Amino acid sequence: MTRSMWYPDLMHEGPPTEEEGGKESYPGREEVLKMFLEFVGESEYEEVRQCEDEEGLYLWDIVVEGEDGNTEYSYMRQGHYAEGEASETAIHVTYTDGEGIPVGGHSVAKYRNGEWMLTP
Q1: What is the pLDDT of residues 18-59, one digit of tens each?
Q2: What is the pTM of this model?
Q3: How large is the greatest C-alpha to C-alpha distance in the chain, in angstroms?
C-alpha cells in the first residue's frame, strides 16, 4: 500500500507518542558534550549559549575559532522554541568566513531511537 500525504491516518512521523506505547527520549548534556568533543577534537571551543526548559537541554551552541573563519556547532532538541524550531533532534555545523558571514553548513548528527547517528 502506498502512503500519501492525502491519507494522514496512514502516516506516522516522529517517535511514538505515549499513547502509541512509547515515550520520546532526548540526549542529556553529557551525551551532547560527547558528540561536540568528537567533532572539535583537540580544538578549544567557546560556549555561545545554552537553553533549558522543564525537559532539559534544548539548545546548545559552541564555536571553534579559526584563522580564516569560525566553525559553529549547534544542538537543538526537536520542538518549537523562542530561538527557533527543529523537526528532529540534531547537531548542525555552520562555517563562517573571517567576517562572520555564513559560507556553508550541514547536519552532522541526528538523534534517533535513543542513539546518535552521524550524517554525511
Answers
A1: 444 445 689 999 999 999 999 999 999 999 999 999 999 999
A2: 0.79
A3: 54
AA letter at 114: G
Buried/exposed code over 5-26 (b: 16+ C-beta within 10 A; e: otherwise) = eeeeeeeeeebeeeeeeeeeeb
Q: Quick one: DSSP state of residue 120?
A: -
Q: How many CB atoms lie within 10 A of CB 67?
A: 6
Q: Of 71, 79, 72, which is closest to residue 52 (Cα–Cα)?
A: 79
Structural domain boundaries of the chain?
A: 22-118
CB 90 within 8 A of CB 76: yes
Which DSSP string corresponds to 5-72? TT-GGG---SSPPGGGT-------HHHHHHHHHHHHTT---EEEEEEEETTEEEEEEEEEE-SS-EEE
Tell me the three cell numbers of residue 62.
559552541
Q: Read off the amino acid at residue 19.
A: E
